[in-house]
Amino acid sequence: MKKRIFALCLALVMILSLAACGGGGTTQPGTEQPGTTGTGTGTGTGTGTGTGTGTGTPAAASASADAALANSLFVNPNVGKGMYSGTAEPGAITVECSTMSVMNTIKMTYNTELSIARHGWDTLVKLDAENNIVPAAAESWESAPNAAGEVDMVWTFHLRPGMKWVDSTGAVVGDVKASDYVFAWKELLNPDNAAEYYAFAAIFKNAQAYYDYKSGKEGAAAVEWEDVGVKALDDLTIQFELETYLPYLLQYLKFEVLSPVCEEFYNKVGADAYGTAPDKMLYSGSFYMTEWVTDNVITMKRNPAWWDADSVTLQTIHFAKYSDANTKYNAFAGGEIDIIDITGEQRAMFTGEGFDVISYVGGYSYYFQINTLDGPNADHPDATKSDMSSKSLRKAISYALDRRQIIDTVFKNDNQPAQCFTLGISGVNTTEFADAVVAACGGSLYPEHADAAKAKEYLAQALTELGYTDASQINVTLMTSEGSQNELLSQVVQEQIRQTLGFEPKIEVLTITEARARRNKLTYDMFMGGWGPDYNDPMTDLDLWMSGNGNNHTGYANPAYDALIESTKTETDPVAREKLFIDAEKIIAEDQFIIPVYWRHEDYVASEKIASGAVRRSFQGYFLAYTTLQG
Amino acid sequence: MLRYVLKRIGYAVLTLFFLITIVFFMMRALPGDPFIGDKTPSPTTMANMRAKYGLDKPVTVQYLMYLGNVLRGDLGTSLTYERPVVDIVKSAFAVSADLGIRALIFAVIIGVLLGAVAAIKRGGPMDTFSMVVAMIGVSVPSFILGALLQYFLALKLNQAVGHQVLAVQGWGNFKQTVLPAFALGLGSLATVSRLMRTSMLDVLNQDYIKTARAKGLSRQKILWRHAVRNAIMPVVTIMGPTTAAVLTGTFVIESIFNIPGLGKYFSMSVKDLDFTMIGGTTIFYGALLIVCTLIVDLLYGFIDPRVKLEG
């Protein structure tokens, strides 16, 4: 009881701080980061099936594959404890889902929205519980060389026969056709939709040129849809030619933005109305949407017309949004929700009670991004000069950080000190690419605890580089976006730097939008950033630091790094290719234009109502179709 | 009377016009870009987004277009939700209004009763009780009250009796409406009851009450027909602002009880730089406040014939 009261007081303090900072919240920075599906600790890269020339019918026949899949899913360790019984509605579960603003798959950007799409529609391929690529809408596929003789450039996908479109009442209204996939991809490339993730459809031959032309980009050559290398050969066959070789094509095709859209229905309701209400969409996945209260709850029902509906026993999923961590906890304790994401304080409480907390890696890596410029340049005309342009100073700060202490003080959860930049991507011969990096480098690239000796060594060099005589002359500001957790993190880092390096960086707290604007203009010194992967290949993280990348806000431009990443695009040997990515990680650690700080781990609890089958992992924030319930 | 109403409506329209203009230019002056998130879209995509929402045109052109659209009842498409702002405001305000009206009914009925009884039994236990309620209602912020109610009256009570008496959160059935309506209404209840008590005490000492008593009217008749009817005037006066406060002040309560009302759009849209949503919710709330005040002014005339509505 005492503990509960304490928790309540804590929650009240949190609410107060929430009110004080206008809803800044205590979520970790980037919790609502757009468009990241996370990556996995799965075995194998999953690119094996169907790659290579010739016919590559996937190794596993679908039915048995799914039976095996259902068996291998997560089993709830808390069943039978009699502590948190979950919701009362039979056959239904309620799970927490944060952002769910947009349900038109073409326009989706948030991880959590993609989770809902994963239930409503089938992409050509999907990930199993181990994050291996398995057939979904496509039963089989094969690749062939293009006219120039380059292998794996022309791909043919054979759809599962008998897939149906259902409406928001579950009634079957038509057949899913190959053209519905092609149509969705065409709309993704339609500038009128202004889809943020259009690039996932720009992989086809001439697709990027088509997008540029249709966007009215200056100097873009005329390219019509007929010239784009993707078409439906018949109702069940899709064929496309790639613009450039893509070693991770299947990982790409799994991305939910590439879900099908029923062309006839879309044209009937109109582009503006499509996806704005449950009855303004058609569904082809394991569940269909029956109710959508904006920004509050989305209800989905089991789709009996789904091709694998026989394996689905769960009847209803409610995706519920909560804006208050304390309410969420009370709702969980009160049997009004079955899965909630939890804070570090709540984690301690559940663990203390003997209720197991489940944790997974979503693939989010957090780091200080740094303005490395010493003034404006052609690409960044507004950029300010920063003392952080001194590489030695960046390294000094990196060694001065006690990453473990940051996690223990700020998050108090399962987050881990960053050992390299990339997280959650499968390795070629290791479970995780990060493991391969650490193995190749003989240990973590960044220290877990502060290394004062090395920090001071680099500080001495930094003072020479900057022409200062004393550390107190160093002028560095930690730009911080408002939110109690963000601000606490900055304070801890400020103190760690002060203790080890003898100067105190300033803290500047801004609204998130202003901070982002300053970040993009490079009018900052240090700013916490996070990155999560979109697809299961190191490229999703490491091309970020190429000089032309629109998300590289460090001013870092290194031809050697660019060349290294470019070379991975043509390297066909997976091991050699992985080595190139490891070299890229080494360059990051050497130049430290970002200072990796921590790897995020997502902590959550599941009520005892859920027996097994609820998948939560990288690239699959939720996949609940095979969930089984107690009793 | 008609002239008065027309004049008031004219002022209301003018006020709204200034509100729209000021908000439009102020939100454009906010630092940041609505399309830059943690990730930055490609320049071509950014240009497409701006074109889609008309943000590629000069600000003055945008302003004139916006005014024209507002006149036609079109508040634009939300940048965050990619849906018409009008649709979102309609469905979300229906919830806020439902909650607000419940809170208001609770606050007024209980507040008037409590205040009247406290005045009649001045110095008695009911008076002390009403004083305590008023103190709590005025001094405890609704978010603390909400969190406490949620913990003790929903979670703990349900656990104690073994089944759900009141829901912790959510919106849809009666069990879910009790606590938020209570938490939202208590502040107003306190104000109403204090005001009612003061006013009632004042009225009870008036000569016409003595006259009524001298005439031999029954105590009930004196209280309800003469005392309460006159004493309630100040309460009616504050009904406009109170209604507006209850309807627009739901953000924190909605957040604590996870209610899909309009409050969060009002506050979150600023954070998201969702221009159309900021504009839409501001215009809506502005219009609501103006209408509430207007209605109360007109109600005056009906309740108290001495008030003459003149232009």
Structure description:
The complex is a heterodimer of chains A (631) and B (311). Chain A is an alpha+beta fold and 631 residues long. Chain A is 30% helix and 19% strand. Chain A contains 18 helices and 24 strands. In chain A, helix 10 (391-400) runs antiparallel to helix 13 (452-466), helix 11 packs antiparallel against helix 14 (484-501) and helix 17 packs antiparallel against helix 18. Chain B is mainly α and 311 residues long. Chain B is built from 13 helices and no strands. At the A-B interface, helix 1, helix 8 and helix 15 of A face helix 2, helix 4, helix 6, helix 11 and helix 12 of B.
Range of helix content of chain A: 25-40%
Strand content of chain A: 15-25%
Strand content of chain B: under 5%
Percent of residues in helices of chain B comes to: over 70%
Indicate the overall shape of chain A. globular
Radius of gyration of chain B: 24 Å
String of helices and strands of chain B: HHHHHHHHHHHHH
Largest interface in this structure:
A-B, 64 and 59 residues
Largest sheet of chain B: none
The low-confidence runs of chain A, each spanning 5 or more residues with pLDDT under 50, are 1-72
Q: Which class do the helix and strand fractions of chain A yield?
A: alpha+beta
What's the Cα radius of gyration of chain A? 25 Å
Output the number of helix runs of chain B: 13
* Rounded average pLDDT of chain B: 89
Structural class of chain B: mainly alpha
Give the overall shape of chain B: flat
Distance between the termini of chain A: 30 Å
